[in-house]
Amino acid sequence: MPEEYKRRTLALLSHNQRVQPNRSLVFASSNLPLMNSSQLDPGVERVIVLYHHISDVTFFIVNFLVGLLIVLDKDRRGIEYRKYLLSLQVFSTLTDVFFTLGIPILVVNSRVIYNAGFNPFHIHTSTFLIIFFLFFTEIGSSYFSCAYYRRNAIFGRGYPLRWEGRRKGLLLVSVRLYALLAAALLYYCTMMIDTPDGEIPTSLNWVLTKPAHMVLRPNFYLFALLAVILVWGGSLFGLIVAVVVELSRQLNCALPNISPTTKRYQRRAVRSLKLQGAVPGIVYIIPVVGEFSILVYSAFSGSEEVAHDANVTTLSALLFNVISMHTFVHSITTLACSKSYQRVVLGLFCKARVGDANSWNAENSAKVRFAEAPPTIY
Q: Where are the transmembrane segments (predicted)?
């Protein structure tokens, strides 16, 4: 019996030695990173998503209220101007709502962009970007309409390029057709630089888990895409700057056909126009300059090394999402530049406080009357 027990014990020990895993491999695998370093940290991604969920409602309420102020404004001096300003406000709000719903995240050092939010109708990231670009072009076109209206209000009839009626309508339509042409070229370029899922490098396989994604190919069409954006944006920006500079110079000169009161009004209007373009424009300029700097840095420092830099990846994602603040900043700037809107907001606030005070006084006076009244006899 002891011999049989000893034989079974030795057999069990030899079996355990055969199935025991290699501890060196286990310890080596435990030291590996949990994810590829080219991927954005899930904690940072959750913070970005949470930020959009909180800010989306807050920004939309502010933007909607400013749009309502524009609609309810009864000043007859700027009815046409407010149409263009309302178009600017509406399309800015739609752009930000579309952005915050999709929550696109750009990892420019890895040439990856994907959606971390709601993806309606399962649209591709390239389609999402083109729709966003179309909204953005309407923002620029509406701002140009505001600047051109202000130009026509200051310069008299017969001034060069001062058009009214059909000519003015054709000019504004031409600016939008120019934007549609740029959008069509961009869509073709995005189709040519989109890497199929089967050709995505192994180091970027994590992007396949995202509902909508796009890995950019560094080919000729990528540079063509950047060139189209620069040509369209640069030409429209240059046109708007030329109009605003012309207005500023004209208002600094003697204008015999304009009264001093009208001149002061036009100066305030041009100053507001400058601020409404410059202050919100910073929200677009900072991400564009930052992402371009990262792209240049990755090109000169070695794309593979920078692509696996977690700090650069986080910086790229955070910079790109600054864009969502554009309309909120524009709304605050519009309020700051318009004294009439400020009076309306302050009036509503004061009425609310007076209403609360009146209700409090009425409640306390009722309590006093009840306390001073004689007891009821049944």
A: 50-72, 84-108, 128-149, 170-188, 220-245, 277-300, 312-333
Residue 49 CA to residue 51 CA, distance in Å, equals: 5
Q: How many CB atoms lie within 10 A of CB 225?
A: 19
Q: What is the mean pLDDT of the chain?
A: 81
Task: Show the domains of the chain with their CATH numbers.
Answer: 42-337 (1.20.1070.10)
Instruction: Identify the residue whose tokens are 């004689």.
Output: 374
- Tell me the two tokens of residue 353: 């406080």
In tens, the pLDDT along 70-100 reads 998 877 777 889 999 999 999 999 999 999 8
Q: What is the pTM of this model?
A: 0.79
Asked if residues 219 and 124 have their Cβ atoms less than 8 Å apart, the reply is: no
Tell me the C-alpha distance between 283 and 304, whole Å.
29
pLDDT score recorded for residue 21: 40
Burial 265-290 (b: 16+ CB within 10 A, else e): ebeebbebbeebbebbbebbeebeeb
